[in-house]
Amino acid sequence: MVRHFKHYAALDDQEVELLHELERSPEHLYAGDTLWLEGHDATELAVVSQGWAYSYTRLANGQRLILDIYLPGDVIGLREYATDRHQASVEIINECTLCRLPHRNLNEIFRQSDKLTRVFFAVASTQQSMLVERMINLGRRDGPGRIAHFLCEMHTRLERTNDDMRGRFRLPLTQQMLADIMGLSAVHVSRIFSQLRSDQLVDRDRHRVHIRNLTGLVELAGFREAYLGQRAIMEMPRQEADHELLRK
């Protein structure tokens, strides 16, 4: 979590310790375990230390739409901080270590640190931006563009906490999960990956992905990583940041 948050702002020792306090009571969950269900009481967040998770909603016809993929360092449930019910269910993808964070504990962080308050706001804003991109994917990109954009996004997110990836990463998502993210059938997803391989853009072997031509994949996706969050105003002195916001 500390490394993830440092992407948004430089943190001093006290701020790092405050974040460590959020991960003092780890809980181990396994693939297929449910963290919480849509419609249940929302009284806590969760911080992912290891492993992957995802949020989803079930449609009236029984189909599943996957909304978020959570990686180590991510905070689950930020969008529901101001609600009393979970807006989506969360399930574990692979063996996962996480820490539950009651809302009252987050309030204490806000009370003690102005900078961490702004970072949490930046993280929540980034998650919202990712949902907007997901909407664009579903509504306006074709099948290859959807998958290309998702792969670019996952590569960028993983690269921020993993050095020297060289275009290779593990993607522990089933064909059906990828279909439920993209709004496509599992068969269509398989065909698109075959096309990407033929075009020498991406190789995929089960849960292993190798982006052979990142420039080409970015062009196919129309991918721009700015929506994934940058330091920018977070790193400016307070008065300069206020002036910059007013100017915009």
The number of helical runs is: 9
Mean pLDDT: 90
Class per helix and strand makeup: alpha+beta
What is the CATH C-level name of the largest domain?
Mainly Beta
Radius of gyration: 19 Å
Low-confidence stretches: 239-248
What is the number of beta strands?
Answer: 11
Q: Write down the domain tally.
A: 2
The residue fraction in helices comes out at 40-55%
Largest sheet: 4 strands, antiparallel
Q: Classify the beta-strand content into a percent band.
A: 15-25%
Order of helices and strands: HHEEEEEEEEHHHEHHEEHH
CATH arch. level architecture of the largest domain:
Sandwich
CATH superfamily of the largest domain: Jelly Rolls
CATH topology of the largest domain: Jelly Rolls
**How far apart lie the N and C ends?**
31 Å
What does this structure look like?
The chain has 248 residues and is an alpha+beta fold. It folds into 2 domains: 1-131, Jelly Rolls (Sandwich), CATH 2.60.120; 141-248, Winged helix-like DNA-binding domain superfamily/Winged helix DNA-binding domain (Arc Repressor Mutant, subunit A), CATH 1.10.10. The protein is built from 9 helices and 11 strands. The protein has helices at residues 2-5, 13-21, 103-112, 114-140, 143-159, 175-182, 186-198, 214-221, 238-247; strands spanning 27-29, 34-36, 44-50, 53-58, 64-70, 75-76, 89-92, 96-102, 168-170, 202-205, 208-211. Strands 1-8-3-6 form a 4-stranded antiparallel beta sheet. Strand 10 and strand 11 (208-211) form a beta hairpin. Helix 5 crosses helix 8 (214-221) and helix 6 packs across helix 7 (186-198). The longest helix is centred in the middle third of the chain and has 27 residues, at 114-140. The chain is globular and about 55 Å long. It starts with a helix and ends with a helix. The model is unreliable at 239-248 (pLDDT under 50). GO terms for molecular function: DNA binding; DNA-binding transcription factor activity. One of its GO terms (cellular component) is cytosol. It comes from Kushneria phosphatilytica. InterPro entries: cNMP-bd_dom (IPR000595), cNMP-bd_dom_sf (IPR018490), Env_Response_Regulators (IPR050397), HTH_CRP (IPR012318), RmlC-like_jellyroll (IPR014710), WH-like_DNA-bd_sf (IPR036388), WH_DNA-bd_sf (IPR036390). This is Crp/Fnr family transcriptional regulator.
